[in-house]
Amino acid sequence: MARDTVKLDGHKVEGLRLQAGLNRWDLSIRAGVSVNTVRKVLDGRPVTLSVGQAIARGLGVGFGDLLPASGGDASIVRRGAETPHHACQQVS
Length: 92
Fold this sequence. Notes:
This protein has helices spanning about 10-20, 25-30, 35-40, 50-60, and strands at about 5, 45-50, 75-80. It has about 90 residues and is an alpha+beta fold. The chain has one domain (about 5-80): 434 Repressor (Amino-terminal Domain) (Orthogonal Bundle). Strands 2-1-3 form a 3-stranded antiparallel sheet. The chain is globular.
């Protein structure tokens, strides 16, 4: 089964967390994720799309508010998705 992952802007998440007066534990409770998952987000490591959405809800902001600024490393990666053979071409 494919799982979409996303890298959130850890600096934005941290700033919003502090602005809301939340420690990491509080954010994890509000988002319904583990403290280790919050650490992953703050470190800029990829998390599932559903975790990213939960973090946004926990902070009371939109999901897009947590993505890197344009030109940054914003990407959603579908894990386990197959590349069709016709999409792979040999470059000479």
